[in-house]
Amino acid sequence: MGELLAGFASPSLSPLAAVGGAVIDAVPPGVKDWAVSAFGTADKDALLAGMVLVIAGLAALAGVLERRRRFAGALVIGIFGLAGAAAVLTRSQVTPLAVVLPLLAAVVAVVLLRLLVGRLKAWDAAASTHGAETAAASSRRSFLQTLGGTGAAVAAGGVLAGIWRGAATAVSEARARITLPAAVSPAPQVPAAAEAGVAGVSPLVTPNRDFYRIDTALSVPAVNPDTWQLKVAGMVAREVQLSFADLMAKPLTERHITIACVSNSVGGDLIGNARWLGWPVRDLLAMAEPQPGADMVLSRSADGWTAGTPLEALTDARDALLAVGMNGEPLPLEHGFPVRLVVPGLYGYVSATKWLTELKVTTFAADTGYWTPRGWSERGPIKTSSRIDVPRSGRPVGAGTVIFAGVAWAQHTGIRKVELRLNRGPWREAELAQGISVDTWYQWKLAMDLSPGQYEVQVRATDLGGRPQDETSRPPAPDGATGFHTVRVDVKS
Fold first, then answer.
1. Dihedral angle at the C-alpha atoms of 104, 110, 112, 115, nearest 10 degrees?
2. Which residues make up the CATH 3.90.420.10 domain(s) of the chain?
3. Is 428 within 8 Å of 417 (Cβ atoms)?
4. What is the pLDDT of residues 160-208, one digit of tens each?
């Protein structure tokens, strides 16, 4: 009922999304890291499944208590409703109607609980009366019909809520009407030599449907481009406000840029490369004129999430963008529509704010982003790394020539070479594809003649400055994983 009512009265915030968001904010960083490593981009689905199980358990508890003592189960539901209202109050999208919804849903739940328990007690009473088989059967039917009707109503309401909410129909329609303008500075042509030509290697450009998504938004924020505003404030000579129409009228830049999540483990897939269209952030900040002493920009999402980005990363020559397009189409809703930040060289937790609404020019001493108080480092430069895509670890291959291939990255720095070694032996240099730019990943390949046996294969990359990637094995927290990606290959005769 809460979700269904939210479809009408509070599309941007439902009770379930509010409680889920509060849970995400409250759990320790280690739990978040475990969830990402265990479920990857399905972490939100896992959380929702867990919430459904908890709700089902509380419903069962309320039923048992209510049957034993009048209003005991109703008290459980009432507490749950108050908890939902409290969770709503912690969300940045809170409205008076959003606060009322979990309370109203709790009232409906109590009414249904009382109705069902009453029917169940009537069945009990009829069944305990000698010779009242007909009355017992009637009471049983009444209870089961009420229960079945309630279940059907819940299922129908859930379907309708998913249709009305979820991807926010009105915003999806607004997105469908957008035609992206041509870039004044188009992306350079992808060199033919950028393809390693090996099946199974990650594509140079990641399709939107396959691009990883890691964020704290349990439900995708519904941001209408017609009413969207970006505010630049804080330590600036003048505040600036920008509408979506203003942004689309600016001279836009298009670039291929690889972005990565700091939670990406060595050899992980929380990384992707896309062709982004947007306006350089430095041009917007130049309009606002940051004051001396400022060293950070705190960006804010429509759902309240924040990231602290070094000011120099948004004002130097790199292609940090207020992105409106991704691979030739408006940003997908789940990737930040209508506007997000894309900053080469920095992990997403300090730069890649989706559903962007505000840029506050400030200092690291005065402000912190969402993840910094939770144990992650302030600045988050992406570490040089590499990955073996083929052959997959543990899969047998035939003896003879075995082709190894994968990707390597050192965003905003570039890759000089990639090397492989077998069973901790000498390093052998791979053939490095040309790459699109220093802000994207590079493909590589190496053919080796292998006899039957078991092999441990490791890869390492060296950036254009001559610095090899860090061999020490470290977890993602607090500033990105390090170590050599290692696969084990079983070569059969």
1. -140
2. 203-374
3. no
4. 665 555 446 778 889 999 999 999 999 999 999 999 999 999 999 999 9
